[in-house]
Amino acid sequence: MSKLGTVARYAVLLLITAVFVTPLVWMLLTSVKTYDDAQQDPPTWLPNPFSTYGYDQILNSTANPVLRWFLNSMLAASLHTLLVLATASMAAYALARMRFRGRGLLFALIVGTLFLPPTSLIIPNFIIAERINWIDTLTIVVVPGAASAFGVFFLRQFFLSIPAELEEAAVLDGANQWQIFRRVLLPLSKPALATLAVLSFLTNWNDFLWPVYVLFSPERLTLPAGLGLLQGAYVTDYPVIMAGAMLASVPVLVLFVFAQRHVIQGVSRSGLKG
């Protein structure tokens, strides 16, 4: 590749990076401004003066228990992720390795549910949750969606890329289906499992619409639903909102930093074999 081509490629990469990083930098800088500084027109980039006003408001507020919302979201997203990994991995193993009548049709039906708009399921899910008394509990934001059609599809594709000879060797050693699944496939599937864990955690962590419908008590709200309460009807306290957004972004950034190597491996291998 010529020097001009190399320069052009890096220029495009820098431009893309700037597009994604600029909003994050603006959010961080606004979160450390005073209320008056954030209201300036035209807006300024650098805070003058530097202030922890936004963080003081969200961390010390009794009306809006942001830390409680944060812990609720952490608990809900973590439990939801564990359920997705458990259900999706077992279903994917059955569809990838076991032979039974209707396997192809069952897989097609599971994949077909990916084309259903999520909002079309809100009312039936709400009715079911109300009848089993799950409304206004964290269970309602953990269990629905734990049977992940995308997770089944994603892990099935990854399982198909693992050589069947490994399982045949385990059978010769006397292993049963459960032992093959637990001791052979799962250890080899760490990249795919890590990828699915990150995606499942992000999906639940960022979910706003469903918690708004089913959580009513202030102390049971998740962080995205709770942050919506920080928006006033007539005024917008930008430092407080941006401080809450920064708090919400920290677990996501930390999770991706630690899991990015596995995520890249999982995505690159999951589609090798159909």
Topology pattern, helix = H, strand = E: HHHHHHHHHHHHHH
Mean pLDDT: 86
Q: What is the overall silhouette? A: globular
Number of strands: 0
Largest sheet, described in full?
none
Low-confidence stretches: none
Strand content: under 5%
Alpha-beta content class: mainly alpha
CATH topology: MetI-like fold
Distance between the termini: 34 Å
The domain tally reads 1
Rg value = 23 Å
Total DSSP helices: 14
CATH architecture: Orthogonal Bundle
Question: Level of helix content?
Answer: 55-70%
Oligomer: single chain
CATH class: Mainly Alpha
Query: In the CATH hierarchy, what is the superfamily?
Result: MetI-like
Description:
By secondary structure, the protein is mostly helical. The protein contains 14 helices and no strands. Helix 4 packs across helix 11 and helix 8 runs antiparallel to helix 11. The protein is globular.
Keywords:
single chain, MetI-like fold, 14 helices, 69% helix, globular
Summarize the structure.
Helix content is 69%, strand content 0%.
Topology:
Blueprint: H1 3-31, H2 35-38, H3 53-60, H4 66-97, H5 103-112, H6 122-131, H7 139-142, H8 149-160, H9 164-172, H10 177-188, H11 190-205, H12 209-214, H13 223-227, H14 238-269
Helix pairs in contact: 1-14, 3-14, 4-8, 4-11, 8-11, 9-10, 11-14
